[in-house]
Amino acid sequence: MVLSTAETLSQALADAIRRTREPRSDRFLPKADLDQILCHDSLIALYQKLFRIVVPQREPNDMLTSNPWIDNPSHDVIGYAQKTVKNPSRISLLALFLLDQREELLSLFKDWLSSDDAKFPSDEDLPLSADGRWLPGIGFHHWEYILEKQWIFLPFTITEQYYERVPRMCRKPFIGNPKEIKRGASGTVYKVKVAAGYWRDKKNDEYRTFSMDQLVAMKVFEDDKDYETERDFLQELRQNVSIHKRIVLDLGGLIYEDSEGKLCHSLFFELAICNLDEFLNKGDNRRFYASNGSVIAKAVDIVEALDFLHKKVRFLHLDLKPDNILIYESAEPGINDGRIWKLTDFNLAKRKIKVRSSSRERLELSNSDSTASTVPAGRGPALYQAPEIQVPGTSLASDESEVWSMGGILLVVLGFLYNPYSGAKRFRDSATVTFKDQGGERRSLYVTSKMHQW
């Protein structure tokens, strides 16, 4: 290879790609790195060298024609650098040709630059088609390389409130491997970092692209039916004009193939600091709140969110527990401690229905305590279930049974306030009764003589 400048840029591109993630098939080149590596000064240096390289053998008539790039390497170099970066951009196409240091492709790019054709290939033409008929001058032996490597420069852009399928060859724009946060019956939640330039959010009905990396939570579902259930419920919530601010809505979703070819369904959410269960089990967290009253005010927010769910959209949550209350940092006016609590995880949520011979709205549940998608109307965790939900056979859930569950959560919070370092655990232990039935065990909160101390 003749070009030391090209070698340096090629190595910088390869290093940036290598840093993104494993496995190799998931790697991509972040736009921020691409713009930094192939900046204006780098293009000037590259073109000064590029147009001095030995060109392929020409026909005798062609050799009589002078080439300004060879005769005068500095001729309009700045203009050609601008031609590379202006709209439409050719930066990704140039990087594709540079990555493997292929002189023939760089020479072809040089010819495109020096031609008078303003419509020569650009990044908008990526991905290149397999037949290559529209792109003359590229030898067949380069196409296998191009068709494989071009996807490194085409990571998928995630757009809030969109539910899209990632093309099979397209790379997801995640920096590093996802970090597992929580594993549940319906799926697993991961912490993911989305590279700058590949996350678009909606602000005042307009979309904007973030210029910084974004940390978000991604819930990957075990079954597509679970994904559809939660997505559809959250969409229905979003359509409500008076959506409660203490209910967690998703940010959109992706459907993609994993490394083994399995189709994965996922939803994105704002990344929380922790869930309430984690908060209550670490006494040092008490220092984040000025008084017991401020903690109780957060709990009241969740009660109001549940009331909104029951009365405004007429749904039952069916999975109330501290794990499904998330704590976020917030810059909202009036939030003195900078933190808010929100209700989340609506995979089991069901619309309330009226039961015959009753004026109350209830929901008949199956006898299984599983939360998997095979259960028509699954039960939540037994520890916070109301007694009537645990009746053998079938049973009915209602607003009242969810108030019981919320009451259990509030009592655990009060235990935390009584003693931040052990109160929550002591209360759960003293109020928990273990039942043995149908060959198994289940634990539930009950009022017993052990609770008199509270």
From TrEMBL:
Q: Which CDD domains match?
A: PKc (cd00180)
E.C. number(s) listed in UniProt = 2.7.12.2
What GO molecular functions are on record for this protein? ATP binding; MAP kinase kinase activity
- First-tier enzyme category under EC: transferase
InterPro entries from the xrefs?
A: Kinase-like_dom_sf, Prot_kinase_dom, Ser/Thr_kinase_AS
- Swiss-Prot/TrEMBL catalytic activity: L-seryl-[protein] + ATP = O-phospho-L-seryl-[protein] + ADP + H(+); L-threonyl-[protein] + ATP = O-phospho-L-threonyl-[protein] + ADP + H(+); L-tyrosyl-[protein] + ATP = O-phospho-L-tyrosyl-[protein] + ADP + H(+)
Keywords in alphabetical order, please. ATP-binding, Kinase, Nucleotide-binding, Transferase
Q: Which residues form the Protein kinase domain?
A: 175-454
Q: Which domain of life is it from?
A: Eukaryota
The family assignment reads:
Belongs to the protein kinase superfamily. STE Ser/Thr protein kinase family. MAP kinase kinase subfamily.
Instruction: Please report the name of this protein according to its UniProt entry.
Output: mitogen-activated protein kinase kinase
Organism source for this protein?
Cucurbitaria berberidis CBS 394.84
The taxonomic lineage of its organism, from the top, reads: Eukaryota, Fungi, Dikarya, Ascomycota, Pezizomycotina
